[in-house]
Every structure is written in structure tokens, then in C-alpha cells.
Amino acid sequence: MSLVLPGKVFFVGAGPGDPGLLAVKAAKILQAADVVIADRLVGMDIIAEYVNAQTLVIPVGKQGGSSASKPQEEINAIIVKMAKRHAKVVRLKGGDITIFSNILDELEALVSANIPYELVPGITAVSGAAAYAGIPLTARNHSTGVRILTYYQTAAISNEAWQELARFVDTLVFYMSGNALPNIVSKLLQAGAEPTMPFAVVEQATTPHQHVHMFTLEEFILRQRDAEFTSPSLVIMGRVAGLYPQFAWLPNSADRSAYFTPLQGQGQFLAAK
Fold it and tell me: Which listed residue (8, 34, 62, 273) is catalytic?
């Protein structure tokens, strides 16, 4: 009696939104997939253009503050289950697969189940947002490095760390922190950051709904602290952000509605197939 070997799982980065930014290798893997397990921040255009009609597409969306988010344990179980039934399973993630994703949990689940896997990187949100906003992240004489963070609760960054961040002379990038922006700016100013330091908030980067907002730390606190930003939004802080008005090449969209399908509409993935 022959043993049934498990399939292989491909972790694939879909990029930040524009389907044209998908890597050639990623496109080929998607076209050959038996199953695609997709995040919410994967545009319908990518599914429609690169995934075959007979491929099973399983949405496993997560959205901050939404009770409809798929629990990570359930996602792990789905990946393992599909890999035991199909030869080629794609775990499709928005942006890059290793930047602020839950890939560690999913890799551990596959290792425990002795299932082979491969990692295929994608253009991450900060790279896409910076390029489509015309902001060179490490422009000479403006920045010598980039620090990528997220801030979703007070304990995420210690008071000592705020002191260090307030002295930043390079570029700070905050993922998944649009709702926490008033807190971030206040913490930086309280820690001694320069009030005139510029920053950009890039909404829905690289999509047809991209919109860039420019502030200084002081201006935001005094006039815009109640501003709301469409998810996903990414924050780029530092002197390089001040280059946006000079090098912006993509006009802001007047449509700031959600480009990515909300969780309650995730069933559309399956219906579209």
C-alpha cells in the first residue's frame, strides 16, 4: 500500500494592491495552484487575472476591530488540511509574506505536520507606498536607514523606546497604526521630537483609491488629530516625507472608499470562481 504524500504550500506575497506589481514567479505559482487561501488585503483583480477558474479559493480575512476576522488557529488548520488533500496550495498574503504577517504561526503548523513549503516574497506595503507617493525612503542627505514598526496598544512601545524614536534622524514607518496616529504623534512630541517633522499617511497604496495626506507633528495635533484614514494606511515619518510635494507623480484619488473587499463580502471570492 503506497503512502499518500502531502502537497506543498507556497507562501506568496501578493504585493500592496496593484496587480501589476505581482512577481513573475508568484503569478506562475498562482496559475498552477489547486487551492488559494487568500488574505483580505488581496485585490479581486489578482484573483481574477492569475487564478484559474477551477481553482478553489478560500478567503481567510482579518480586519482590525472586526469580530468576523478568521482566528489564526483556524487558518493554520485550513492550510494543513488543504495540503493533505491537494498537491499545490498557495497561502496568498497582501504585501510581503514576512513583514507584519502571521507567517510564523503558519510555518510552525506546517513543520509540525511534516508538510513541505516554499516562501515567495512580494513587494511590501512600505516599498509600494513610498514608490507610488514619490518618497525615496533613504534619500541621500535625508535618511540613512528605515525603521519599520507597528503601534496598536500602549504597551507595544515602551517609554524608553519613545525617547529613542523621538531623536530619529532617519525614516520611521508605522504599519497598521492609522487609528493610533494621535497617540503616536503625542508620544513623539512628549518625548522631544521636532514639532516641524513632516510625515505622510498613504491610504490604500498602489490601488486606484490611493490618497496621500501630509502633516507635521505639530500641525496634526493642533488641527487634524480627529482625522480618519481609510484602511489600509501606512505612515512614513521623517525628512524624506517632506519630498512628497516635489516628487509626487500619482494624483490623489477623490474616491476614498474601501478598495479591498470588507470581511462581510469575502464570499465574493468564491462566487467569482
Answer: 62
CATH 3.30.950.10 domain position(s) in the chain: 126-247
- CATH level 3 topology of 126-247: 3.30.950
Q: Please list, in sequence order, all residues whose beta carbon lies within 8 angstroms of the beta carbon of residue 110, skipping any fewer than 6 positions away.
A: 9, 79, 80, 83, 116, 117
Whether 226 is a known active-site residue: answer no
Fold (CATH) for 8-123: Cobalt-precorrin-4 Transmethylase; domain 1 (3.40.1010)
Q: Which residue of the set 39, 70, 88, 187 is catalytic?
A: 39
pTM passes above 0.85:
yes
pLDDT (tens digit, 9 = 90+) per residue, 182-235?
Answer: 999 999 999 999 999 999 999 999 999 999 999 999 999 998 989 999 999 999
Q: What are phi and psi of 197, to 5 degrees?
A: -65, 125
Residue 39 falls in the annotated catalytic set? yes
**C-alpha 248 chain-centroid distance:** 21
